[in-house]
């Protein structure tokens, strides 16, 4: 949504929850002069940023020859604890609800709950997921 000297955008990232930001422009509307998050779905998440596990996009083969599926892998992460090198973490596998949905590599506190407690999480975008190719091209660019 745009205003006279600003616009409002909705977005999220791997470390920021779904939020609305106000972007203010100079008089010529050619440069940004201010950027403020004016609403956040989880404003307290900023306090815990040191515990956030960042996702890696992974690719794996499917049963269809030559066709791959994609997922986000979140390694366990907690700066207060470190497992031994020989120990492998338990793995939680998530799958979204259907072909009109997709998973995105944005901050999901339900994933972070597990990763901060020593679990690895894989959030799968199986074949047919909406936006699957957008996610891949975004990661590759």
TrEMBL record:
Domain of life (superkingdom): Eukaryota
InterPro entries: AB_hydrolase_fold, Xaa-Pro_dipeptidyl-ppase/CocE
Annotated region (Disordered), positions in chain: 81-100
Protein name: Peptidase S9 prolyl oligopeptidase catalytic domain-containing protein
